[in-house]
Write a structure and sequence with these properties.
Layout lengths: L1 E2 L8 E3 L2 E6 L2 E6 L5 H6 L4 H23 L7 H17 L4 H13 L8 H5 L11 H7 L12 H18 L8 H16 L1
Antiparallel strand pairs: 1-4, 2-3, 3-4
Helix pairs in contact: 2-3, 2-4, 3-4, 7-8
Length: about 200
């Protein structure tokens, strides 16, 4: 890239030399020998095409997640660039689009959502015992875990799972519920939410 100086400055192409203006200065460059058709057709540009595809997909996913954020939480440097870069890493791992979106939502949107209390999910041992099988029903619906905290259905399931795993690792049931019953109910509930 050469800088144009002198009285006559031009923009345009003469032969294989192109003149252009950028930021108030005039420059010269030679025409590229590559064409769009070569990049799209030749085998030697397969990595270029693959990277362009990944970049486009990552941009699309990141844009979708970014627009789900409240306007006051959007920031080019603090949110957009890390979001886009994380999307690119996940796309390069060739994960399914839905899994990438779920991962990015968990990382960038859930921490900003005041309804979700992650500390309640990580330590879900705030439970009150009730006699009989009613406790199991309340437990698996997330009503007895973290009562008073508004959680989404997925968060309730995560809290219930963590609580049951704690009970199973301790080797004792809760309110007369056997480990086998707890395991069966957890499998049934997990299968219900996978659909």
């Amino acid at each position: 890239m050469a800088t144009q100086t002198g009285i006559v400055l031009f923009e345009g192409t003469i032969g294989n030399i192109t003149g252009y203006r950028m930021n108030g200065k005039h420059y010269l460059k030679t025409k590229s020998s590559l064409s769009r058709r070569q990049i799209l057709k030749k085998d030697c540009f397969s990595n270029t095409r693959r990277n362009a595809k990944w970049f486009g997909e990552a941009q699309s996913i990141a844009k979708q997640i970014y627009h789900e954020l409240p306007p006051d939480k959007r920031d080019q440097f603090k949110v957009w660039y890390p979001l886009r870069n994380k999307a690119q890493l996940l796309v390069r791992k060739e994960l399914p689009r839905e899994e990438i979106i779920r991962h990015l939502r968990n990382e960038f949107i859930v921490p900003l959502n005041p309804r979700t209390n992650s500390s309640a999910i990580l330590s879900p041992l705030i439970a009150t015992r009730q006699p009989g099988n009613e406790f199991a029903t309340q437990l698996f619906l997330g009503k007895e875990i973290n009562s008073g905290v508004v959680l989404s259905l997925v968060d309730q399931l995560a809290a219930s799972r963590a609580f049951v795993q704690t009970l199973l690792s301790a080797g004792s049931g809760a309110s007369g519920i056997t480990n086998q019953l707890l395991s069966q109910k957890m499998r049934k509930l997990s299968n219900k939410f996978r659909r």
